[in-house]
Amino acid sequence: MEVGGRKINPRMIKLINLTTGISAKWLETGKGEMFVQDATGEIEEIVNLYRQLNPFFKGYFKRQLLEIINYENRTRET
């Protein structure tokens, strides 16, 4: 997966997967089901990990997630 010409590293894909329930496979390839069927446990896990981050990395994660969402929205419009 790329955002703005930059590749997203596997850790970020995992973080997005755990936070949103979006399938890591879908994020990497665009194939298969977009959402993991039962992501409740994973979401709780990532929320707990997120809470451990210092403010800089919390901000970084939010910016990356917003970039991904904006990119996805732009690609849907075309």
Short characterization:
By secondary structure, the chain is mainly alpha-helical. The protein contains four helices and two strands.
Task: Compile the SSE list and pairings.
Layout: E1 2-3, E2 6-7, H1 10-20, H2 24-29, H3 40-52, H4 55-77
Antiparallel strand pairs: 1-2
Helix pairs in contact: 1-3
Q: Could you give the order of the helices and strands?
A: EEHHHH
How much helical structure, as a percent, in the residues?
55-70%
Broad shape:
globular
**Strand-residue proportion:** 5-15%
Report low-confidence residues grouped into runs of 5 or more. Answer: none
User: C-alpha Rg, in Å?
Assistant: 13 Å
| Tally of contiguous helical segments | 4
Report on this model:
The structure is a single chain. The chain is mainly alpha-helical. The protein has one domain. It is built from four helices and two strands; from the N terminus they run ββαααα. Strands 1-2 form a two-stranded antiparallel ribbon. It is globular and about 40 Å long.
